[in-house]
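Usage

Read records sequentially. Each one opens with the input sequence:
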Amino acid sequence: MGTLIRVRRGHYVTTNADPAQRAAVAIGGRLACASAASTYGLWSEMHAGLHVAVPPSASRLQMDVVDHIAVPSSAFRFGADAFGDVRIHWQGNLAPSECWRVSLADCLRGVVRCSPAESAIATLDTAIGLRLVDPAMIGRMFAAEPTRSRLIASRAFPGSESGVESLARQRLQRRGLVVRQQVAVRGVGRVDMLVDDRVFVEIDGFEFHSSQHHFARDRRRDAAFVLGGYRRLRFTAVDVLRDWALVEQTIIDVLRHT
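and closes with the structure output:
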């Protein structure tokens, strides 16, 4: 387990404890927002810094200077400097949870309050994809939240198996395109999305399918698409995140010629 060290009065961690959890407890709070989201397996790739929830009564923290909600991580002890800025969330009435992170509901509410709408929806979509919540549960979680949060939460949708798929869905829909997700295709299986009922789009994750099994499976899928006469485009997660303009234009150009 490692040696126990005291990070705060009444709080001890092992020397091999997760750095983010250790820093949050040392600050006097719990992982929140995107930092908590990653521990639940949710989309959090576009969120920087360490997010920590503290109670409203925590007026004095272990730091030299507080700059509204973003605090230089160098102001903290116990390794917080590895995370860039530390974002303090002053949150009351937090639901009971582990000592190192907020509950799933508080995590999702924090993400929606703190993040751009597109990224927040991607986090909600991945929570639905992992079956941690469903749209009805999200509606209840956000019933007492501000109007902006409720509107964002209402746009969460089942079907995205990754945050990147959610980003692609949202961006295509903003262009007025009809997007269906997880479409079953005979001889192929499930496909990430079908755009305007004409072009299938698949988005490969960050993992490389380098094994012989995955390589053979992908080749069989390629052949099935051709034999079925389907139009299919395949992009990587990096394409979506770093070169979306090209991805979008490619899809639109293929639709125009289909």
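Summary fields computed downstream for this record:
- The first strand starts at residue 4 and ends at 8.
- Residues 4-153 form one domain.
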